[in-house]
MBL fold metallo-hydrolase
Amino acid sequence: MTARTIGQASIAKVEELCAAGFKPNRMFPRFNQEAFDAHKHWMVPEHVEAGSDRLVGSLHTWIVRTPRHTILIDTCLGNHKTRSAPAWNNLDTPFLERLRAAGVPPESVDMVMCTHLHVDHVGWNTKLENGRWVPTFPNARYLFARKEYAHWEDERRHKTGEEVNGGSFDDSVLPVVEARQAVFVDIDHQPDSLLTIRDAPGHTPGSITIHLADGGQEAVFSGDIMHHPIQVYYPEWSSQFCWDQDMSARSRRQVLEHCAEHRSLLCPAHFPGANAGYIHRERDAFRIEWDRR
């Protein structure tokens, strides 16, 4: 896949894992089989596993290069971390080698931005070094939405480390704060002249979207506002992992409406294959036009 361009900026994806996971009736509490079946003809096999209906999902990092900065958006699961899901436990993937092959050695990263602080979006924030978790990207500022961090910090006061995001707050977020590389930002913050942080609560209390705009073009990094492209067609289908189902649906619709109105490239966190696209209105919902670069 070649890098996409937005004005003077470029976008590339580095994948950690891609596999079939949950069945849709488990993933989406408002699931409707007939509605799902109406779209299977284009979802199989790229987005839905043939024969099982299990949803195919990708874990990847977005590399954004602007004239001033090299930025990573979301950092997947990470290696050597104890996780309750067997497929995510104690991984040993060549993710950093893939980053280097894409021209991004860890030392070159200026910023790490997390759309929210769930386990599969913060993992490579840190690496294991001499028995300690240390920031993987030594020269980077790690930008955490202030409201999002405050929510998990409050949970940490009342629970053990293993109970807060499956242990990821302790091994993938707090070490960054302790190393003084964390920066807590508010909505509408612009860490780069081409980037703006927007509020998109619902999946978590402080989840955000990140907008990259230049030269009359825009890309929107939506995090987990959408897990699967079926949600473009049924925006009311929030995932079982959403903190507030209705709020997440409202945020999802707002993002889709924005992308349709501004001809923005939607760049989600978990779409596999042709993993980004342009949104078009279609009656009361939307459809996606894949960008297969």
In short: The chain has a mean pLDDT of 96. Residues 81 and 90 are 5 Å apart (CA to CA). The radius of gyration is 18 Å.
